[in-house]
Design goal:
The complex is a heterodimer of chains A (113) and B (110).
Chain A lengths: L3 E4 L2 E4 L5 E7 L5 E7 L5 E7 L6 E2 L6 E5 L5 E5 L8 E8 L8 E2 L3 E5 L1
Parallel strand pairs in A: 2-11
Antiparallel strand pairs in A: 1-3, 3-8, 4-5, 4-9, 5-6, 7-8, 9-10, 9-11
Chain B lengths: L3 E3 L4 E4 L4 E7 L6 E7 L6 E6 L3 E5 L2 E6 L4 E6 L8 E8 L5 E3 L3 E6 L1
Parallel strand pairs in B: 2-11
Antiparallel strand pairs in B: 1-3, 3-8, 4-5, 4-9, 6-7, 7-8, 9-10, 9-11
Classes of the chains: A mainly beta (113), B mainly beta (110).
Chain lengths: 113, 110
């Protein structure tokens, strides 16, 4: 039982390049989330998926797209990376949106030059 | 803009002391309140949640909620060096969105 896994762990991109961050959970959770965390700031929600087949914008969705591939997997895509997207990205999951516990993955550190 | 405010610290306490971490929030319709612990370079992990006014205790941790004052706190009794981490306050607002504070860095000195 791995919980929430994320790939890659670390990535360096040049401005304008694209990439997809992968997230998978093996807890049979319905809801999944993508956050970014910047120094001195809390976690900010980018997008979430309340259940398979649905996605919704969070607080900071601009420059990102998501896909809920199936119940297990939720990917985050940067179509044209910008230096402002340099951050640590966390994926999380919960049984549903009202469950009190969100379980976080180990994070992906992204540097955009 | 719904806000969750925390003192960024750093907060230093000696081993064995009580550490007090505070958080205020702006959305009066908020219903659920959470404390996460995040070690340096690691992901956040939930340590407590509280829904009702008053105190909730779990081992050495006590969460306190005052909805009238829009204030939630976390007390850590008998602080240990292993408690050194950043503590994130999170609030689920009336739209069921979880908003995090920027965190308070706690250092427990041996």
């Amino acid at each position: 039982n791995a919980g929430v896994t994320q790939t890659p762990k670390f990535q360096v991109l040049k401005t304008g390049q694209s990439m997809t961050l992968q997230c998978a959970q093996d807890m049979n959770h319905n809801s999944m989330y993508w956050y970014r965390q910047d120094p001195g700031m809390g976690l900010r929600l980018i997008y979430y998926s309340a259940s398979e087949g649905t996605t919704d914008k969070g607080e900071v969705p601009n420059g990102y797209n998501v896909s809920r591939l199936n119940k297990r997997e939720f990917s985050l895509r940067l179509e044209s990376a910008a230096p402002s997207q340099t951050s640590v990205y966390f994926c999380a999951s919960s049984r549903d949106r009202d469950q009190e516990t969100q379980y976080f993955g180990p994070g992906t550190r992204l540097l955009v030059l | 803009q719904k806000e969750v405010e925390q003192n960024s610290g750093p907060l230093s306490v000696p081993e064995g002391a009580i550490a007090s971490l505070n958080c205020t929030y702006s959305d009066r319709g908020s219903q659920s309140f959470f404390w996460y612990r995040q070690y340096s370079g690691k992901s956040p992990e939930l340590i407590m949640f509280i829904y009702s006014n008053g105190d909730k205790e779990d081992g050495r941790f006590t969460a306190q909620l005052n909805k009238a004052s829009q204030y939630v706190s976390l007390l850590i009794r008998d602080s240990q060096p292993s408690d050194s981490a950043t503590y994130l306050c999170a609030v689920r607002d009336s739209a069921r969105q979880l908003t995090f504070g920027s965190g308070t860095q706690l250092t427990v000195l041996p």
